[in-house]
Fold each of these.
Amino acid sequence: MASTADRLSERRNSVIPDIEALPESTLDERGRQRFCSALRRFAIQDMPEMLHKDFDHRVAPARQSEGVPLDDALAIEDAMEGEASYRFYSTLRYNAQEMCFQSVQEPIERALPEMIDLARAAQERNPAGGSLRLDPALPVPDYVSQLDVHLTPGCFHKEWVADDVAQGAVVALGARVFSASMSHRSWGGVAKVISRWLKHERHEFAPTRMLDIGTSSGKNLMPYVQAFPGVEAHGVDVGAPLLRYGHAVAEHEGIPLHLSQQNAEALDFPDGHFDLIVSSFFFHEITVDATRKVLAECRRLLRPGGIMVHQELPATCLVDAWEDFFWNWDTEHNNEPNYTDFRAQDPAVLLEEAGFEPERNFAHLLPDLGAYPDRAEAFGWNEPGRPRHGKGAWYVFGSSLPS
Ligand SMILES: C[S@@+](CC[C@H](N)C(=O)[O-])C[C@H]1O[C@@H](n2cnc3c(N)ncnc32)[C@H](O)[C@@H]1O
């Protein structure tokens, strides 16, 4: 009998062509995209190591000789912000980030009418059996609408024409340029890591209905359908263009996703509707007040015996001062003003406030074996020496409910 993965791939290339293949880059554009990928990798992976050395060997000794304590991220930022090394790093990182998204805009613009037609056809035909529910009256929260989050031009929600999918494409294809040179950022990798861990921890766990919060175009939702055959997979997001685009991708892939445009602070699903709730790269982009509301919604929506796993940036209380300084760069420089405030929260406290039982809550790193297949043996789930978050491991926090 064919496996679920085989059946899903047989259904691929069905009546809905691949929307992701429509924007065709010219040779010049491809060159630019490759340059942006390489620049970003250099800025975010190689430069921080050099910067750290500069801090340890030059900046810190000079400050300490003046009696300045350097024991938290703010003190390190204060010491580094005027230094040429830090300014050069920040400049490269800022521009590389912005250019990754800009590098896909022109091919997307040329293909836009065709992409919109394809997304409309996906909605009419739904060959994979998914669904798309949009709410044009939904107020987009200020923390999304008032700025281009992480320097993505047009952000997650802007619509320039009727039935627009452009921002879905800019976010999805820009993110591929953004992470193309980094082996530890495989497509849908977070979902693969979490589902593998869930199967390891709870062999018997077989969710029937799941929810991905802030799903964007569903890249971190789709792998769960393959990991848990038959699961009814729901994703919510405030950005309509992302959801239209994601729906077209999923219908092409033959994966039934149920996508709806909703604010995760107040969802319209009934109590206890899901036995698995996940999110990835979501909470650091919303306010702490909104985080509390979303976690309270998760508690309401999780069914007895259910599990909730959120992948996020490691909390301040879990990292050293240098790493804290490194992560908080985005707050001031990457249009992510809630980053530091979110990271300052202790996940254990947030979970308890939302009504989860302290002894069932967790916060830890999950190694991404997909990024280091040759070291699979070395990275047991709980071994010391695991890679850091963003360096081949993902930080997750969450909880579960008793059956
Ligand atoms: C950085 S993206 C993460 C996307 C995706 N989860 C991933 O792993 O790539 C954050 C997403 O959360 C969405 N979002 C922000 N605030 C939201 C809210 N209150 N309710 C639902 N979605 C929200 C944004 O539109 C965006 O698509």
Amino acid sequence: MHPLVTILGSLCLMAAPVLAQPMVPDTVSGLKLWMDSGSPYVTRNGSDQVSAWASRLESPVVSGVQATMSRQPIWIEEATPSKQAALSFDGTDRLNLDQQIPLTNALTAFVVFSISDLAIDNQYLLDTRMGGTPNPGYSLLYRVIGGAPYLEASYRHPDDSAATRIQLKLADDLTTFGNDGWVIASLQIASDAEGRHLSLSALGNEATDTKTGLFTNLTGAYNLAIGALANNYSDGFLRGEVASILLYDRALGEGEITGVTDYLNQFYVIPEPQTVALLVGGLVILGIRRAQARAGKR
Ligand SMILES: [Ca+2]
């Protein structure tokens, strides 16, 4: 390589932002669901309507499925700021996992998403229900409260008279928030001697709440749904895009949440840098493609 090219390359590396160490999701223990919008994991027809979205994990083998074509989300090849794919939900769509995810005494979930219609309240990203009354379950959803966008998490134990809810404000008004509208949210529910703890984080902010009682896995009538309520087709539909979902069977530590969030941020959200063109003597073009570096790490 020409020495000048080496020097320029070094300068470019030095100028790159310093990022925390990302943690690839399956290097963190307890992963039960890894939804990745990459083409190999998405079953779709010629119009990119998605009938199945498979978890990347070898165990458990699970997919989000939808047989009804009008309720299938659409796969979009370059959807996120980093030009990764996502599934677009138009307000009529929902995927349901084809089996239940076994959890023991805690959960941590991550969702990479973007909301298309900010004015509509009660858009569910994730939801599961036991069925019956009072229909216990846990949810992660987009809300509009007092004219501002919020993220809400809820958990309802079978013994609870009302669900525990926590809400996190995403912006002061209904303008686009996040990185080009994209948000990485993490939800954690765990319990110890003090009670049950819910925490929700997004955009560098966190909301937490504690309630008496233990977390119990909820198995029953309805498997985890993506993009709508698990138990009906009347409301709660997402109008937005989902690029990734992770579900862990335990409460991740703070460093693990940061590491996984950094991975998701670098892969799905951080935009491609502009190709750098330099004129050196004749014409030397150095193309810096972070996508290639990322592909190598994956
Ligand atoms: Ca539809």
Amino acid sequence: MKFHSQKVAWGFFATCMLLFSLQLIYGFIMAFAHAGFDGLHDWIPFNVARATHTNLLVMWLLAGFMGSAYWIIPDECNRELAWPRLAWVQLIAFVLTGVAAIIGFHFGWWEGRKFLEIPRPLDYLVVIDVMLFIANIGWTVWKSERKSTTSMVLFFGLLTAALLYLPGMIPTDNQTVDSYWRWWVVHLWVEGVWELIMGAILSYLLIKLTGVDREIIEKWLYVIVGFTFLSGILGTGHHFYYIGLPRYWLMVGGVFSALEPLAFLGMAIYAFSMAKKGGRTHPNRVALLWTVGCSFMSFVGAGFLGFAHTLPQVNMYTHGTLVTAMHGHMAFWGAYAMLVLGIITYAMPLLTGRKLYDHPTAGFAFWSSNVGMTAMTLAFAVAGVSQVVLERRAGMDFLTVQKEVEVHFVGLILAATLFTAGISAFVWNFVRYGLPTAKVTGAQQSTTQELAPEPLPAVAAARG
Ligand code: HEM
Ligand code: HEM
Ligand SMILES: [Fe+2]
């Protein structure tokens, strides 16, 4: 690694591994409950398991983004992090707040608003924590003479993500108004500013792993940012169809959200073409596999499966059913989980000085988790479509239908087992990498060369 302060990224990545593993346990608790085996009901009822599962997901992804920033920003800015110790304090505070929230859920201390269940007092702690994080990376970027497009998009993505947490805290006792602001957070995160974070991290990984010129890679980043804002902002309307807001949202939401897959398609074409152009000569091939895989799976999960229920005529029937869970799993997995696992795969050899990327478990982790997640998505799809037909078209009672679809959750459990085998291999590899003890190589000397591409030896040799 280049800088000492990049080590803090390891702390965030280790947190990801812990919280992700815990998230999967709660996924199984719910999958068994859906299949008719709800033995833990008295201790962990479904709503508690669900809030815990999704909040752990958001927490580990945010930890992954922060870790990525603490890794990427010093590298891109060619200087140590402004306040490395603060970054460790901020990590510990983040984990303590998260743990308090999760324990609270189990004792009925929650807000009951999907994805934003964290109780209000803890929200303030999250805000303070994220402000410290933004200040740390912001000051590092500000003090640096080298402001690359990648680092700026990453910084502004993270800053706007932090700001967009605030609408979710606007107090109201009106259900429609509450729903309205909730979507400002949930939608404008995953289909807005998180896409900037994704674009920037993909850009960083492609620069490092393909050896293609930085200028070419970063030019694409502008296109992606453009597409994201063009479609994603007004695309929020696809959540406003039937919650008590004016009718024009049917049209606005339908049209703009239908354009959203373009940004994901753009990212997929971008990653594939850069990987092809670069000739795949980097030794850490599995990191490139995660990078390109992320762009592809996010297109399938977010773009394709998002489009599948985004038109008001369809959403009228599918809203809030297991069809949403089908899309939610593949979208979160493809876009953000794979992204974080990708940067961890890239950074671990550099953080620890060990090279485990050639080990068979590294490839197994990728393929088993992806095939497992694809099968999980199919299981949710079958259950979801059956639910829509029986409940919304045939008019059967909600609970009768839940009984009818129980069998599909046996399929989900099998698929999730395959998925978990892959993730276990990933976590095992992480443990085997050990602590971040690699040698620190220091800053690059010349400033004129800093913005120049970083060709791989093979590419440089081919260019003569
Ligand atoms: C990586 C990007 C995305 C992620 C992580 C994601 C994830 C999710 C999640 C978790 C939900 C459920 C939210 C809730 O009910 O609170 C949801 C809902 C929805 N998503 Fe996405 N999504 C993404 C992109 C997209 C795109 C691009 C589209 C459209 C083309 C889309 C269309 C929808 C629709 C229509 C709903 C509402 C479903 C309902 O009415 O129950 N999503 N998404
Ligand atoms: C062992 C693996 C997993 C299992 C068995 C599992 C199972 C489940 C179940 C049963 C639900 C509740 C669906 C309902 O409301 O009825 C759920 C919700 C959810 N899970 Fe998972 N899950 C797993 C892994 C994951 C992963 C890896 C992700 C993200 C990358 C994820 C993201 C979500 C999301 C976003 C929701 C909320 C969906 C919605 O809003 O409708 N899960 N999960
Ligand atoms: Fe949305």
